[in-house]
Amino acid sequence: MQDPVAAAVARAFRDEWATVLATLIRQVGDFQLAEDAVQDAFASAVSAWRRDGVPASPGAWITVAARRRAIDRLRRDRSVMDRAQRLADLVRLDAQEEEDPLLTDESALADDRLRLIFTCCHPALDVPARVALTLRALGGLTTGEIARAFLVSEPTMGKRIVRAKRKIADAHIPYRVPDDEELPDRVRGVLRVVYLIFNEGYAATEGDRLVRGELCSEAIRLGRLLCELMPDDAEAWGLLALMLLHDGRRASRVDAEGRYVTLDEQDRALWDEAQIGEGMAVLERATRLRRPGEYQLQAAITALHIQAPDADATDWAQIAELYGALARLQPSPVVELNRAAAVGFAHGHEAGLELLEPLLGDPALASYQPLHAVHAELLRRADDLDGAARAYQRAIELSANTVERAELERRLLALRR
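and the corresponding structure tokens:
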């Protein structure tokens, strides 16, 4: 039986980490100091709650405890003048007898979390650093958990996170929500980070698992937070819808032995109908805002796959049209690749291969594994078995995920039978 106090601390860690950290960063003005103090507070909660009972408001308890740990840390480091000033401010705050309004003012808490999101996703940080810092600060994942998720050593990931925090301090990156003129571009960057986290969970680039469910769940949790904090942003809702619809099919994407299962062979009884229903409702909410974007279009494509009564009834023509709209809105080789595949299903393999031709001639895509996998499938449908075999072999060489590679090998073997 699970220890109820340990369970309460774990639940508070998951639910309150980002909120408490965001508030404390604003109070102390130092990312590392705030994080160390919050970690201290959670560590002390285990013994304190076992002794005194789980508090009615765990988040408020952790916030006060973390602030006091920050004061203790600053008191031990009086040599730095600006920290001495912050210490004075913190002592003054801690001495107030009235209840701290930050513990009850939801708008203030929301502002702090938004500041933290935009700080973690600042364009001055490179994308890997943004992803790692977002998972650490907003997801509450440990450095070890993030390292395992992205298949790097814990020291490597630790250095990446430390460098990101140092960059924030050294570059004086402001802890604030961007000005109105900066906001559209910065929001896109934030959404992109969450999208990348989900993609790595949904189709892991390396390792022996196709799906890393913990990353999918974290990305969805972050997506919900973004929608809560930015309820009028259509693309935030579109991204959440996309993630919910994809993740709703998680249980059907590999079989009991861990083998890859293609969409047309998936057991739809394993789909999470409640989550898919939520995803459809979220997509409808996004479209009602009448500000179409790339994530809404991707979610609409995924919805068409899900709504088809079976794989043969998939509306590939409409999917191809949506990919065309996506290519006009957000042109990229990946979108063109997906459009070529959809056109191949909708209008025949020759039409798909024609769209694929310029991508195959692009040196930048020579090592892009999905391009060769799609090429192989279209060649197979065109009865060019030798060409398909060569394309499958190239895709196999480029695949670093064992589940994905095994599926490609199975398809190659089927050509030779």
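(Above: one complete record from the training split.) The radius of gyration is 24 Å.
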